[in-house]
Amino acid sequence: MRMLEPIAVAAVAVGLLVSGCTTDTAPADTSTEESTAMETATPSPSPTPSPTLDVTVPPKRPEAMATPSADGAAAAASYFISLYVYMYATGDTSTWRQMSAPTCAFCLDAAADAEAVAASGRRGGTPVEIKSAEGLELKPGEWFTARLRVIQPPTIEVDTSGNETQTSDGGTYDFDFAMTWNGDWTIDSIGVEPVVSE
Fold first, then answer.
1. What is the DSSP letter of 127?
2. What is the domain extent for residue 75?
3. Which residues partner with 155 through β-bridges?
4. Is residue 34 part of a domain?
5. Distance CA 72, CA 66 (A)
6. Which residues form a coiled coil (predicted)?
7. 183: how many CB neighbours lie within 10 A of its CB?
């Protein structure tokens, strides 16, 4: 999977110190209370694991994309990012390219890279988290911008035998979109900036 931009990540570990107090007083006899509590306690149900997103399934277009508005722009940008993961997992760049303007260098480079990955027999595609998405209307019904904050987890690219061929550390990125509405959305350009700290 194409690296967005390398960034340095500083990890801050926070330790919790638990202290205990002791006294000379003998503890009260709680064996009866503990026995009663054990008899009446019911086991907690095990948490159900969240379903894993299948990145080989084409993402669904949000309904908000049908509207040339700030919300529509944010929805279209979010959909475009979900296509980013899908095309690296499958090599299918058709919808990505359909939405990409000839002026969008990031769009064209990413599509070419995803196609090269697929042609070599490798595969990638780790689900990303869109932390926030905001749209802005510049010219009513025509020109828009959108900003997404995206969390990309560490990714592993594997070959056809399942051998690891590349890893990336992931990170948090701000994506700035310039977009046009002409009956549907066209991505004119994308700028990507790493978020060093929040």
1. -
2. 63-194
3. 168
4. no
5. 7
6. none
7. 6
151: its two tokens: 């969390």
Residues 6+ apart with CB under 8 A from 181: 68, 72, 73, 141, 142, 143, 144
- In sequence order, the 6+-apart residues with CB closer than 8 A to the CB of 172 are 131, 149, 150, 151, 152, 194, 195, 198
What pLDDT, in 10s, does the model give residues 13-23? 222 222 233 33
Q: What is the CATH number of the domain that holds 115?
A: 3.10.450.50
110 occurs within a structural domain: yes
Greatest distance between any 2 Cα atoms in the chain: 80
* Amino acid letter for position 94: S
Provide the 10 A C-beta neighbour count for residue 149: 16
Q: CA 196, CA 10: separation in Å to the nearest integer?
A: 8
**At CB < 8 A and 24+ separation, what contacts does 193-198 make?**
193/5, 194/4, 194/5, 194/7, 195/149, 195/171, 196/7, 196/8, 197/10, 198/172
Q: Count up the domains in the chain and report the number.
A: 1
Amino acid at 99: M
> How far is C-alpha 100 from the geometric centre of its chain's CA atoms?
20
Instruction: Note the pLDDT tens digit of each residue in 50-61.
Output: 445 688 999 999
In terms of pLDDT, which residue wins out, 26 or 157? 157
69 Ramachandran zone, left/alpha/beta (phi>0; psi -120 to 50): beta
Structure confidence at residue 155 (pLDDT): 78
Closest CA to 119 of 156, 80, 160: 160
